[in-house]
Probable RNA 2'-phosphotransferase
Amino acid sequence: MDEKRTVKTSKMLSRILRHDPGRIGVTLDEGGWVPVETLLTALTRCGNRLSRAELDHVVATNNKQRFAYSPDGLRIRANQGHTVEVDLGLAAAEPPAVLYHGTGHGSVAAIMHEGLRPMARQDVHLSADVETAVRVGARHGRPVVLAVDAAALAAAGHVFRVSANGVWLTDSVPPHHLTRHSG
């Protein structure tokens, strides 16, 4: 599978497994899982034939590790970023003292006024490192990295969870817990 097809397939799977499973006639269970064979059959029915080997390649090589197989390898789901209601079953975790959020320059003023909200997603997504936040922010224009005082948020009762691919999730970040990262 060439790189162009891998990226195109990854984007298609993200759209289906995070936002619109009904698009191809599949239903996610409460944990966001769908049987692999059901997914592959539905994709073929919709004109997007994908073999198990090709799916394995996309899951293994996705640089953002967006997808995961169940331990038995029979089901697949997106690791986070859902706009459809799912419960990923992630346990609460103690965050690092500081986490980061990448955004575009044009959104900074609103974020510093309103804080971070999940918008259409279920959770606010945070990174453990600046480099990842810069890459995320670059998808939205000129990147700006915001530092999140995760230790103070946790002390105030905010719950954090970490997805299988290392993305930190929380319900919101009030503006007084944000500073512009100057690194």
Remarks:
- Residues 30 and 86 are 5 Å apart (CA to CA).
- The chain has two domains: 3-78, 98-180.
- Residues 3-19 form the longest helix (17 residues).
- The mean pLDDT is 94.
